[in-house]
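Handout, section 4.2: multi-component inputs.
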Amino acid sequence: MLNNLTKPHEYPGKLFVVEGIDGSGKTTQLGLLAKWLTAEGHRVFVTEWNSSALVKAATKSGKKKNTLTPMTFSLLHATDFADRLLYKIIPPLKAGMIVLADRYAYTAFARDSVRGVDGQWVRELYSFAVRPDMVLYFRVPIDVSLDRLMARRVKLKFYEAGMDLGWSTNPTESFRLFQGRVLEEYDRIVDEFGLDVINAARSITEQQQEVRRLVAARIPVTSVETPDEQLA
Amino acid sequence: MSNSPETAIGAPDAGQPGQYYGRGIPYLPINGYPGKLIAIEGTDGVGRSTQILLLREWLEVRGYGVVETGWTRSELMAPTIELAKSSNTLNKLTFVLLYATDFADRLEKEIIPALKAGFVVLSDRYIFTALARAGVRGVDRPWLRSLYAFAIAPHQVFYLKLDVETLIRRVLAARGMDFWESGMDLKHGDDIYDSFRAYQNRLLREYSSMADEFNFRVVDARRSIEQIQSELRRQVGAFLEQER
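Output:
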């Protein structure tokens, strides 16, 4: 059996991952981290979950017709991930770059388990993945994430709100139920894979300071400054 | 994860005919479903579709409800797989996962509902095709088996076995060699004949190595269509009779 996800990689580059539910603020934090690393003179590559061109078509048509099952949902995301891993993540790591991933296999472990897919099977499925140098998990209470999403007037997405599970016809209620279960799964994953937990209920600047401190311990940097107002 | 279905992790009866090979799909329990799953395996050009056509006809005349399923025909994935094949940009891992997604879609939407409703499901190729193709391409075998742990073990698997010499003559006579069937993506050279021969040889070795692991019923496909069909009818008929 492959065990790439549990043994350190040997590439010269670094792989840093942010994880967390929608509205946890992880994408904002990743953007600020990328700005800082670039300013420090590092070559940075950012990659997002579920973004490869190859399976976008299938995911889209599946979502439109609402025909994805928990298993095909899981496998499609694994296909997308494999495509990005081999074309987008490993080459920059080989070139000594810093790869920042917005979500990684842990998202699949959390979501797919809640959808009723066997947790051990999903872990074995992703055993070809490269183990990140650090995973930052932005832990946030459901109400805080919902407030943030509502403030941005974001329309809750069908699958992100777990509407496919039919637990509630009300998107907000469904989000609360589904993401509540996802949070429980994440807590298990934190222990299992040694994720670094960031308290994401704090201010953006406070969080970013902690993020930069954690990242600085793993790469050569000249200074860890407090992000200024403009960045925040 | 073990290579042997007998010791697959999961339910106590995992790997038994009609049960999941391994961990299975937790939200779809399949215990006690009356239908039967019969897979016909073999490389391209061995005459699988002809045999399935004849077998279906025979079973229906005898009063059995029959559903056919194939490989890469799901509504969800067929367009994506065709696109990927034509653009020729697939790496082996993505390829394996696309096929697994396609299979999962057909398993949940065609095969399991048909088994529940008591049909005889005739599968033109099954997961063994995927295991053989990926195995030849160097994908980790234990990983492949854990990937397909959600598949249902067929009640019978017929492996139509043909030697490479006979296969080459049949394929050339019928339609010629194509890029994928010749393993040209493995880049063993520009000569499609040499590539086809080498690739099909390796595929046949993969199938042979799976024969014991997955209880293949090996059928000599060098014989006439009628002879092969009568052997299939004898074995399928005896099994269905005993299960009636």
